[in-house]
From TrEMBL:
GO terms for biological process: cellular response to oxidative stress; superoxide metabolic process. One of its GO terms (cellular component) is cytoplasm. It is found in: Cytoplasm. This is Superoxide dismutase [Cu-Zn]. The keyword Cytoplasm applies. Keywords: Cytoplasm. Residues 89-110 are annotated as: Disordered.
Length: 110
């Protein structure tokens, strides 16, 4: 089982997300996304699609902790694989990055 703790800080204009993963291969690469919903009633699958992730990456200058664009109340998901950043030829790569299953997630809260 993969366990993770993520800390989101917004003390300045740049938002910092730091995390600690346990229970996974230390040499593995993981996709790490903000998902639309803060709903984990059916595990990580109820978190919905990626939140405002049109290019497979969210520059830290775009992450907000306030207003309607806030990531507070949404789910942070750690995926089983590495995000291919839309470089594969299939449509899912362009849409979600093919990062795989969702072994760990948690709702972002204040």
């Amino acid at each position: 089982m993969v366990k993770a703790i993520a800390t989101v800080r917004g003390d300045s204009k740049v938002i910092t997300i730091s995390w600690s993963l346990r229970g996974n291969d230390p040499n593995s690469e993981r996709g790490f996304h903000i998902h639309e919903f803060g709903d984990n009633t059916n595990g990580c699958t109820s978190a919905g699609p990626h939140y405002r992730n049109s290019e497979g990456i969210i520059p830290d200058g775009l992450i907000k902790l306030n207003r309607s664009e806030s990531i507070i109340g949404r789910t942070i998901v750690i995926h089983a694989g590495c995000d291919d950043l839309g470089r594969d030829e299939n449509a899912e790569s362009k849409r979600i990055g093919n990062a795989g299953a969702r072994p760990a997630c948690g709702k972002s809260c204040r």
